[in-house]
Design a protein that fits this description.
single chain; two-stranded antiparallel sheet; 4 helices; 2 strands; globular
Length: 103
């Protein structure tokens, strides 16, 4: 194992409305999901992709996510933000930094 192996994100068990879920942190390769100037529809799809990747479950359908009640959706997204350290626009800053380096 390399020295970087200790920096791989660890899953976290959460509970939403009595249901236990295991969330996995996003990976560097998932940064491609974040685009500039996203439409409202693209942002909604992004939320679904983040949920699928974070739960590590490809059997989750778009229809299931779109049918979630808002309270549950927000609770899950809050937990995804926490496990990935997204606060105060942090992901935007990370993305901006990566884009500026690529130019």
């Amino acid at each position: 194992m390399s020295k970087l192996s200790k920096f791989l994100g660890q899953p976290k068990e959460i509970e939403i409305k009595g249901e236990k879920l295991i969330l996995f942190p996003l990976k560097v390769k998932d940064l491609v999901l974040f685009k500039e100037n996203m439409t409202a529809e693209e942002k909604m799809k992004l939320g679904g992709k983040l949920i699928k990747r974070s739960l590590n479950d490809d059997s989750i359908t778009d229809e299931e996510i779109e049918s979630m009640d808002l309270e549950t959706y927000v609770a899950v997204m809050d937990e995804i933000n926490k496990i990935n350290g997204f606060k105060d626009g942090r992901i935007a800053k990370i993305k901006e930094s990566i884009i500026s380096r690529a130019k």
